[in-house]
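Researcher: Quick test of sequence recovery. Tokens follow.
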């Protein structure tokens, strides 16, 4: 509990300091937060390391598909090759603890532990909005599964040490089941002990409502706990064939004394041409559903700090402020996207809050006149303009674990006839 409070406090002070820096740089220059968080005056544009860079990537596996990461634990699925096409192995996942040094393929690595998970959903169905892949935190693992009739939300508790053993791996339990056979889980999130998920009805039955649910695994019983029938469920809106609710997150607001939920929504403005709009919405028990912003995509939420995509750039956003006036720049542009946050929601060795994203550059070929694009994976820091180009190009789902221990990247790439899982460590940001 002490560790959790310390991390939240550090993040809270970081967000407050950055907000002050944006709106009152004069005041910040006198603040004691500035020196400790490295966002003040000239230091905010200069990294503590002379040459910010990443180590050359090393391939650590050719048959593992990474699903989620937290600290020393990598959650993955085995890949099987069927007639030259790779598929995730069904009904099982693995947790590989790479040891206290947080680096794979070193002497302190533990053996992977298998979790038998019948009907586990490893990736979403084409057209769905939301990330349904399994998740891992400092203590818990959650995933969605399908038993042939209903979709279920499952959890495993790794205990206080955060290291999975075979006994814990065999003690999965269901915390929620879809109320109707036609409803399909399309997103699941996990922040520490906080689980949130969404269901949709792909058949388009207007009589069956959508469903969004959330619960806290650290609560033993009662409303809001993850005991059966105690999960808090609400309907984000009436059925609309052109709308879909996606990733959902929540936290408990101690000032208001109630849960605050943020969720993303996708709307097809012109289904024939694929024109879509993304929006961010909120829900609470006292005020129901409210629109926060259109033309904005929710990437992640940790406590009240969200990461959002707005006008081709990545920003931090402190709820319940307004958008765009309360956005805090992370990426510089001109065209950035496909962002994933630091899975640990912690501060880097240089005192920065990092996000990984793809930066797209375009140029016109002088001889042919054709427009060409190339993409690179970058790390960006909340509020101070620091960016670091990594050794990777476009990565669909990079996994970044950043804390005072270091900045560690896991990415997977398909090259010719095999998948490679790469690892790299980045410095100076």
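Model:
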């Amino acid at each position: 509990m002490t560790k959790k409070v310390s991390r939240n406090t550090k993040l809270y002070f970081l967000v407050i300091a950055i907000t002050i820096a944006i709106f009152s740089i004069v005041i910040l220059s006198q603040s004691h937060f500035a020196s400790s968080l490295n966002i003040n005056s000239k230091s905010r544009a200069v990294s503590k390391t002379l040459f910010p860079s990443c180590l050359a990537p090393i391939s650590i596996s050719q048959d593992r598909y990474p699903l989620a990461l937290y600290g020393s634990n990598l959650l993955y699925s085995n890949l099987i090759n069927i007639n030259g096409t790779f598929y995730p192995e069904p009904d099982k996942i693995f947790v590989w603890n790479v040891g206290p040094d947080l680096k794979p393929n070193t002497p302190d690595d533990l053996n992977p532990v298998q979790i038998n998970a019948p009907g586990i959903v490893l990736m979403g169905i084409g057209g769905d909005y939301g990330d349904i892949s399994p998740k891992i935190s400092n203590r818990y693992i959650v995933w969605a599964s399908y038993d042939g009739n209903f979709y279920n939300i499952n959890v495993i508790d790794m205990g206080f040490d955060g290291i999975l053993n075979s006994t814990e791996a065999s003690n999965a339990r269901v915390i929620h089941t879809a109320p109707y056979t036609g409803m399909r889980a399309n997103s699941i999130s996990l922040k520490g002990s906080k689980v949130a998920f969404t269901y949709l009805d792909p058949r388009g039955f207007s009589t069956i409502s959508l469903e969004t649910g959330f619960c806290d695994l650290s609560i033993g019983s009662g409303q809001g706990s993850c005991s059966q029938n105690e999960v808090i469920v609400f309907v984000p809106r009436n059925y609309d064939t052109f709308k879909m609710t996606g990733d959902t997150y929540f936290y408990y607001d101690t000032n208001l004394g109630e849960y605050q939920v943020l969720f993303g929504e996708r709307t097809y403005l012109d289904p024939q041409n694929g024109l879509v709009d993304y929006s961010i919405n909120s829900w609470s028990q006292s005020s129901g559903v409210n629109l926060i912003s259109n033309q904005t995509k929710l990437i992640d939420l940790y406590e009240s700090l969200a990461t959002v995509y707005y006008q081709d750039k990545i920003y931090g956003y402190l709820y319940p402020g307004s958008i765009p006036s309360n956005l805090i720049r992370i990426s510089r542009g001109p065209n950035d996207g496909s962002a994933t946050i630091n899975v640990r929601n912690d501060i880097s060795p240089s005192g920065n809050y990092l996000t990984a994203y793809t930066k797209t550059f375009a140029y016109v070929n002088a001889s042919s006149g054709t427009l060409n694009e190339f993409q690179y994976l970058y790390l960006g820091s909340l509020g101070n303009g620091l960016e670091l180009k990594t050794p990777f190009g476009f990565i669909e789902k990079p996994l970044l674990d950043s804390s005072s221990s270091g900045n560690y990247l896991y990415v997977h790439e398909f090259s010719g006839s095999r998948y490679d899982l790469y690892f790299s460590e980045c410095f100076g940001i």
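The longest helix spans residues 2-23.
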